[in-house]
Amino acid sequence: MKDHSSATASTTVTADRAIGFTLGALGVLAFSMSLPATRVAVQQLDPWFVAFGRAVGAALLAWAYLRFTNAPRPARSQWRRLSIVALGVVVGFPLFTSLALTTQTSAHGAVVITVLPAMTAVFAVLRAGERPPPLFWIASLGGLVAVLAFLVTSGAVRGALSAADLFLLAAVVLCGLGYAEGGVLARELGGARTICWALLLSLPVTLLITFVAASAHPPRADASAWSAFGYLTAISMFLGFFAWYAGLARGGIARVGQIQLTQPVLTLLWSALLLAEAITPASIGAALAVLACVVLTQRTRSGRAPGNDVTAGAATIRAQSCSGAPVTWCSAACITSATRRRTCPPRAR
Prior knowledge:
By secondary structure, the chain is mainly α. Helices cover 71% and strands 4% of the residues. It has one domain (10-303).
């Protein structure tokens, strides 16, 4: 009986990691067009309007979603953590990438965001208590080296460190923090509600700055710029996070975060389609090398910090919410969360 229970638990963990990987991949696919779309938008629209206007539009979508689903309000402690998410992914990353891409190309931006998976893993250790094994870090470093080698040989890296590079580095640090904190919080609130509440929390600030930016530089652009702005609003700032945060919560922040190693290559591919940049055979080789490294990171086992019961990759079980909502996946976090109010069945022993 014990062996059967252990096998069932192991199968559940494996399935949950696979779901997390799939959701994370969908999120990365959505985010991979963010830099090219931003580059297109800021050529005709004020970068401050692009950064904060899309957050306002996404906040309106978030309000509609929360109203439609009758979502409960977060607890007081969760609002503080939501402010960290908002700082990283609602304010920090959109603002600094918009400022950077007024003078730099999206291909150059792809070089700098290559370090985003590593930054996410660092914050996963600091904020989520995850302890990836040495093989994980080796595979992650291998993927980082492969992407950097590709970008250097393809000519994407030129010149010295500029103000745009500093903006991009700031964006990466804040985004890594927002990803890690949001991934932890998504275990309690769910991926969709995490980004929705973060957007609404930011709305007073984003709405004010959008109004000021629009007053100073009235937005005038053609269909391509507005289409890019629409993508940033509906996909990059809203729907993409539904899948991304759910994937981080299911599969582990450090592990799923490494899927971002594919994002720079995807970004260059989108740049070629949208901005007429050439695609070389080296991109195919780099993509295969990165894919191999990502697969290797997914085959490693995550450890957990002493005394930390809510780590990525922990066994998850099905539970029925007290409100009679449809059955959803529940982790150890739901037992102690005041807002989720879930009653989880005992773990198999």
